[in-house]
Amino acid sequence: MGYELQIQTGMRMGEVLGLRWSDIDLDTKIITIRQTLAKIDESGKYGLVTETKTHSSFRQIYLQVSLCQNLMNHRKVIENERKILNSKYMNNDLVVCTSSGNWVYPNNYRKGFKVTCEYLVLPKIRVHDLRHTHATFLIGGLQVNPKIVQERLGHANIKTTLGTYSHVLPSMQIEVAEKIDQAFK
What we know:
- The protein is mainly alpha-helical.
- The chain is built from eight helices and five strands, in the order H-H-E-E-E-E-E-H-H-H-H-H-H.
- It has helices spanning 2-9, 13-18, 65-85, 106-119, 128-141, 146-153, 158-164, 169-183, and strands at residues 24-25, 30-32, 36-39, 46-49, 60-62.
- The strands form two sheets. It has a three-stranded antiparallel sheet with strand order 1-2-5, with no helix packed on it.
- A hairpin with a 4-residue loop joins strand 1 and strand 2 (30-32).
- Helix 1 packs parallel to helix 5 and helix 6 packs across helix 7.
- The model has no long low-confidence stretch (mean pLDDT 92).
């Protein structure tokens, strides 16, 4: 579910691993990013942090119907695990968690992604590349306004979005020229 959230929303890994069910409104189809899983000390210890990477990282992301349906199905799996473990289940309200309800260590999440890519015979990419794929698809494939992509990704500045995804813009320039040509025929 975490990988699906990343590729379909552009969320950062820490945002996905810190996402709570209480941060998702399936009726309005909105996720609100309120907390993350992040390093909490110099020794590299992780924990849930009730703040985001930057001020603009605190945001709302609108969801498509299919993702909401997958979240509802995933929630049923979580509820079943909670029933099985009963009082031993750690109810952190997390969407992506271990079978006992604890948060997932980032290294385990990365390893799981690597194994999934190998199993599906996909190219070797990093978990963070799911976020890049999402943004590139929005800008290049769907031609979504970069300002909307900036807000969706939680970038503090449009320059970050444009600088990171400028490689998509040349092909869009070609498409614009073709559309102008067609309009003037």
